Amino acid sequence: xxxxxxxxxxxxxxxxxxxxxxxxxxxxxxxxxxxxxxxxxxxxxxxxxxxxxxxxxxxxxxxxxxxxxxxxxxxxxxxxxxxxxxxxxxxxxxxxxxxxxxxxxxxxxxxxxxxxxxxxxxxxxxxxxxxxxxxxxxxxxxxxxxxxxxxxxxxxxxxxxxxxxxxxxxxxxxxxxxxxxxxxxxxxxxxxxxxxxxxxxxxxxxxxxxxxxxxxxxxxxxxxxxxxxxxxxxxxxxxxxxxxxxxxxxxxxxxxxxxxxxxxxxxxxxxxxxxxxxxxxxxxxxxx
Length: 288
Known about the structure:
Blueprint: E1 6-7, H1 11-31, E2 37-42, E3 49-51, E4 70-71, H2 73-78, E5 86-91, H3 94-106, E6 114-118, H4 121-131, E7 136-142, H5 151-159, E8 163-169, H6 171-175, E9 178-179, E10 182-183, H7 185-195, E11 205-211, E12 217-223, H8 227-241, E13 245-246, E14 251-253, E15 261-267, H9 272-286
Parallel strand pairs: 1-3, 2-5, 2-7, 5-6, 7-8
Antiparallel strand pairs: 3-4, 8-15, 9-10, 11-12, 13-15, 14-15
């Protein structure tokens, strides 16, 4: 069996992966002379490879050209030099986990460093945060499916004081929960859980009182914000818990130039020397 590619994404997916890969390389080089244990955690690791939408027929895998298959974040991380001391790949799909296990055969020299876990990323990350030791330094990549990352998970990562977080925020998926008629209740509840507050609503929806032709006062709503405003709000929320700060530059990504996601960076390390370097490196990577 070989790594089974998933079909999703576009040019923006390559850009996202290139940015994270570039930072992983810088992270390793900066810390290789220090006695830290370097850890990489990919919380929504996928299968290890992907095919951009439109490249081939997803139902005709045997016809896919080799050059159409691109390495996913997990496979890219394993190719980084200097290598990490520990790799943790998490995915909820059994098929993806089976595919990820094929990476062990491709990297036998790292087999004892790789852990592949099937499960809910929020649950597995909570366990991971509790397991960290004093000299552990970690890069965590969150590339979630939908609105699945909970605020409690973000707080857990921040509380370690040892995590550099790369988070692909699904701002379009969040914005879709809001229309001119108001906020979709079930989706809004998931965003509340994702951000740990309902204050985000104020940046995307406004309530107004209007008077109709009969002199009756009616409450109306209108949408006043979208992806940009939600992206800014998420960065403010991250900055409230990550002591090392948040890069002021968020990279907008999406198909055909649309702002569907924001790639953001946050540092949990409270050391000024450490977080100033991390933020400087991350910001240089984020800028196109």
